[in-house]
Amino acid sequence: MDATLFVQLLIAGVLLGGIYALASIGLTLIFGVMKIVNFAHGEFLMVAMYLSFWLYHYFKLDPYISILIVVPLLFLVGILIYRLLIKPTIGAPVLTQIFVTVGLSMVIENLALLFWSADFRTVSLEYLQNAIILGPYPSLGMEEIIVNPARLIAFCIALFLAVAFYFFLKLSYTGKVIRATSQDRFTALLMGINIDRIFKLTFAIGIMLVGVAGALMIPIYTVHPFVGFEFVLVMFVVVVLGGMGSVVGATVAGIFIGIIEVFSGFLLGPESKEAIYFLVFIAALVIKPSGLFGLEGEEELERIEAID
Amino acid sequence: MKPLTEQLKTRQAAILCIVLLILVLSPLFVKNDFYLDGFILIFLWGAFSGAWNIISGYAGMVSLCHNAFFAIGAYTSTLLFLRLGITPWLGMFAGGILASAVGVILGLVCFRLRSHYFVLATLAFGQVSHIVSLNWRSLTEGAEGIALPIEPNLYNMTFAGKLPYVYIALFLFVAVMAVSYVIEHSRLGYYLTAFRENEDAARALGVKTGRVRLVAMAISCFLAAITGSLYAQYVVYIDPSSVARLQLSVQVALFTIVGGLGTVLGPAIGAMIFIPITIFLRANLGTAVPGLHMIIYGLILILVLLYMPKGIYGTLREKIGRIRATSKPEN
Amino acid sequence: MLAVRNISKFFGGNPVLQDITFNIDKGEVVGLIGPNGSGKTTLFNVITGFYRSKTGHTKFNDRDITQMTPEAICKLGVCRTFQITKPFSNIPVLKNVTIGALIREKSLRKAEKRAEEVLEFVGMQGKKDVLGKNLTIADRKRLEIARGLATSPKLFLLDEVMAGLTPIELQGMMDLLRNLADKGMTLFVIEHIMTAIMNLSHRIIVLDHGEIIAQGEPEEISCDPNCIKAYLGEDYLNAQDQ
Questions:
Q1: How far is CA A214 from the centre of its chain?
Q2: Which of A19, A126, A143, B28 has the fewest CB atoms within 10 Å, i.e. the most exposed one?
Q3: pLDDT above 90: percentage of residues in chain B
Q4: Residues 6+ apart with CB under 8 A from C12
């Protein structure tokens, strides 16, 4: 493999990974704070993609502008879903939590199928049609490198949001409250934190973030009712690899998975690329289940608490 | 008090016999193939759900990769028949053993993971299995699928009419329930319950929590594979999308949870609720309203989990148990 | 019967147990006391295989159990209860205890019979159909003991079985333990209720900050200055001397 190809693939992988990262940050946040695995997370991605699509289709609204609509809308949707479905399952057995979100994903997917049909939809923006060309760099032995502008924009916005969100969590009061709740729910409660409100906020933020990812993705990917399912699996891989609850982890892992997918897609063919990152996933679960940035041991079955 | 419980037991046994008799005899009176097909699907799905229930319900390790074991069963018996001429009656046992082996290895690797992570691991494995079945073309013919020759005779496990399939499926259905019953009332079942209720306490009492779960996994995978083989024999055409799709796992989970996780009759009841709904919707709406049955499934699942988490049969059993307990004379 | 040598346990860099060495002989009732956080339950966890010790070893009847799993250790005859009770909540008391009995009886029926005998012994036969989650604290403690007894232990580790009991319940529990001791069972008991443990034990081990600061007969211990210092503080000790 020559240098050009390598760099080409690398860039493609990083750009892809940025999107995965943004989509997964919401998921990892929800798990970190509420200990809920949201199987329906991909469906909100799909809904956001459709939303952007229809806004473009009917109002010629640029998807990047439609983010301004998607964000508050999905935030509200997140609050609604939390109140209706998630809140009743806090404290219920894990099976209940998991399958409520599974049920939700079934409903959302098939409502999309019902209303919008299985046709693939895309948004094709004129100003994104011309590829960005870097180079050539003869001194480095590289020829031209092609970058997909839509992916580049998506990556930049995704990275910006990820970093912004990281600092939000780190520096703002609300962010600290969220982190406290994620570390020790009981103590946070004792400190006077309204856990219900934090959960509601966290869930809504999580849904909102994946919504932004969706709006960023519609110029790149086609949307159909089951695209959520395709992506949710990757998102789980990213979240576990990065460590459930770690925003930094999700970002790093997202980019890592993007790179793996692009390289294995090239080396092994498009059918096998999925298998590779699933195998990475299983390997991660076996070797260090808490992920790159997760807390050690939180993935194992509970140990006895020694009070004395 | 003692005579009452004994009365109840003989009454239960009598009801069981009557129900079995009805089940066994009623297909003989049904002439319409459409309904016979419905019976077969109910029995097959009931058996598959019952198999899933053993590891996910009794052992408490929720699996989303049972599609893999179903597929192993379907492909193993089919390929052994087509390539080596081995009768599916034997081939399905080979599939069962293979599935058990795979399941046990998966368990050895993943049982130490906490519930969420275990489910995700099985999800990944289930998805990998689907991908493998699509891409390992030399073995599975990939997306094209494999068709079984239709030469009806006993050796081929292929029959001209639907009735023999009904009875084979019924036998499997009852067998899975019998296995569940035996497990529930055996040492294995007690130990699985102990693990589910409180792993640390179980270990402190000498329960080999690792070992009992592996046993449950082996049984569960074996039965799932047998169901897969039977399914292959009935539909005489298998491909990754019909036997290896992840949605298969979700479906058995759905049936079992709504019926009653961790009970003998729960999976059966789940199948008996959902299969007729699907058939009814498909018959009356056809493809006019795509996805409607899944929307209904999803809503039922959510409603049951929120308001009747033990499932229909589980909740019923609890209510009856409470009534019995309060009506018992005080000691 | 039980020989513990140089056991230590660290959580992170924090030493929770340091160089623990002691014996327990057959038929003894040994009390384990110490202020909160001294490592008593951690010691139980190490002995019974829930935690691994970095150093030293534990031997039960001359058999090295240091690396064994909790299940295997129970099979050998060492059983323990939990400070925060862990009943099997959704099954009746009888089934709870039967699970314990199954380690010795292969047949379910025989195990159930043994369970009924044990329930009779601890005085809970009337509650055998009550679900674990519906038991009172006192009954949960009794259930822990009953379950453990069903495994026919040779050495029984009891972790604060008297905590949270009313005086009447306390008396009942003491009678039960005395009954067990009289029958020759070897007991290793963590307790905070001094009157109870002093009355019951042949010997006391005192733990503080993960180290054994005293061992001996109850009368010796109650006068031991180290113990007084550990529980009540140096000022009290100084006040006493004056």
A1: 9
A2: A126
A3: 54
A4: none
Q: Is the distance from CB of B217 to CB of C81 less than 8 angstroms? A: no
Work out the minimum CA distance from C74 to partner chain B, whole angstroms.
5
Query: What Å distances lie between residue B189 and A199, A297, C102, CA to CA?
Result: 38, 29, 11
Q: Two tokens at C218?
A: 């109850």
First to last CA, chain A: 60
Maximum distance among all Cα pairs of chain A, rounded to whole angstroms: 68
* Percentage of the residues of chain B whose pLDDT score is greater than 70: 95
Which amino acid belongs to residue A91? G
Pairing of strands C14-24, C2-11: antiparallel
User: Would you state the pLDDT for residue C101?
Assistant: 93
Interchain contact, C36 vs A304, CB within 8 Å: no
* Cβ within 8 Å of residue A2, ≥6 positions away: A141
* Subunit partners of chain C (3 or more CB pairs within 8 A): A, B
Q: State which H helix or E strand residue C90 sits in.
A: none
User: CATH class for domain C2-77+154-241?
Assistant: alpha beta
CB A227 within 8 A of CB A49: yes
User: What is the value of pTM for the model shown?
Assistant: 0.89
Domain residue spans of chain C: 2-77+154-241, 87-152
Nearest residue of chain A to residue B300 (CA atoms): A103
Please state, in angstroms and rounded to a whole number, the distance separating the CA atoms of residues B28 and B281. 26
Percentage with pLDDT > 70 across chain C: 94
Q: Rounded distance, CA B210 to CA B104, Å? A: 11
The interface predicted TM-score (ipTM) is: 0.88
pLDDT at C241: 59
- Find the CB nearest B114 among A92, A103, A301: A301
How remote is the C-alpha of A208 from its chain's centroid?
A: 11
pLDDT one-digit tens code per residue, B208-232: 999 999 999 999 999 999 999 999 9
